[in-house]
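User: My advisor asked me to double-check a structure prediction for Mechanosensitive ion channel before group meeting. I don't want to rely on an old file, so could you generate it fresh from this sequence?
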Amino acid sequence: MAEFWTSFTTALAPFDVPITIVFYILGAFVFRWILLKLIDRSVKQIVSGVKKKRGVTDTQALSVRSPLAAVRTVQRTRTIGSVLTNIVNVVVVVILVVMIIAKIDPGILASLSILSAAVGAGLGFGAQRIVGDVLNGLFMVMEDQLGVGDVIDMGEATGVVEKVGVRITQIRDVEGTLWFVRNGEIQRVGSFSQGWNRIVFDLAVPYETSRAHVERVMLQAAKELTEDPDWMDYFIGTPEMWGMESISSDAVVLRLTIRVRPGTRWEVERELRARTQDALKSAEINLPSLKAIVLDGADGQPTAGGTA
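Assistant: Sure, here is a fresh prediction for Mechanosensitive ion channel from the sequence you gave:
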């Protein structure tokens, strides 16, 4: 038996390097699979736990029925899971390449270190940008600036965050365009998915129309919407009439605001406009021509009686 194993190992000696490389590759795939399974399982356990605790089955329902902290826990967990997955992929590939090179020729690593020192000055700027992208992406996730599923505004790109990578963040805008944004280039992030949103509804009415009457109609329409069982869960607080925002010889602009749950602003705003139109028709209040509307108030800023 000893002679058999000796002859067997002797016969395989010429294939030692290829066989070792194959084992390295298989080991890397197994190691990567185990880590990704652990990450995926941890993320699913946290998300499922939050959903089960809140009595919902999907994240969309969670965003309507659950406290904001629960929604952020789900979104942040998924984002961190995405980032960790990317890090695992990169680290495993780098380690695998280094091990294979070392097995083929240990002297190559020494040569590569010398070569890298020689070209380090030339690649320094590019490396700094890559490191900056990675660090900025990690800090954005750790500081909860954004998460997968968030609706954000980055200036050039506005939409839903689909993926947060080690170096790139992917955003899908309302037209379906997928934007790839380098994390190091992100200077500001406006989030529509944290805390609360405010609907700012401006309505231009004829100069001669009773302003108090129109305000009552607008406020009543908004209150009916907030009391509707199908919509009441979307709101945080009650409607506020901020009053006259601007005035001209043809029309006055009245402003009404409501706080809503994050990410629900647009659908609630559309429903509010539709109900306000029906209420105005019932009250026989006609609106001026679009050419007569002057929206020169301070957009987004409260007037007397409003709260920021």
